[in-house]
Inverse folding.
């Protein structure tokens, strides 16, 4: 019983600390996949932590790619659910940025948008962006925890995140 209580207390402490790791990425291991539920949310900003095992100071290949989808913002601002019908010009904006770091070492970032200016009727506010951070880097054996931040820079909502992570070694 004491072990169960101690385990429960440890799990609660880890989860509340904000450092809860979504899993472990092994260097030269398999691709690791996350979705929106694996991220901690703060408004339209999402953060995932992945422990990294196998960084011994060698050159690492980081490949982090994401598909992020949701509803875009429009200007002039209108109060709509999934669709609005009004005549333009209408500026739809859906801008998302992904930043990747490992134990405080910057790996890379990318921003993408699905903005469009319409002079006709607007029916669909749904947008999707694809982001890729691809970098070769020597972290000196210091890459212990990968942090991936997905930031809704100019969005109404982020509804889905599909993220793939692969960390490999050069040959």
């Amino acid at each position: 019983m004491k072990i169960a209580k101690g385990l429960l207390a440890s799990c609660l402490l880890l989860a509340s600390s904000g450092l809860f790791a979504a899993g472990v990425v092994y260097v030269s291991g398999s691709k690791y996949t996350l979705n929106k539920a694996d991220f901690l949310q703060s408004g339209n900003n999402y953060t995932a932590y992945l422990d990294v095992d196998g960084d011994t100071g060698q050159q690492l290949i980081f490949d982090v790619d994401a598909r992020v989808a949701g509803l875009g913002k429009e200007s002039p601002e209108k109060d709509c659910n999934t669709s609005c019908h009004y005549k333009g010009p209408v500026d739809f904006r859906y801008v998302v940025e992904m930043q990747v770091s490992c134990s405080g070492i910057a790996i890379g970032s990318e921003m993408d948008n699905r903005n469009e200016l319409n002079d006709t009727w607007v029916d669909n506010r749904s947008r999707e962006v694809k982001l890729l951070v691809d970098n070769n880097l020597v972290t000196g054996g210091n890459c212990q925890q990968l942090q991936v931040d997905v930031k809704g820079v100019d969005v109404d909502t982020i509804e889905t995140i599909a993220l793939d992570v692969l960390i490999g070694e050069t040959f």
Summary: The radius of gyration is 19 Å.
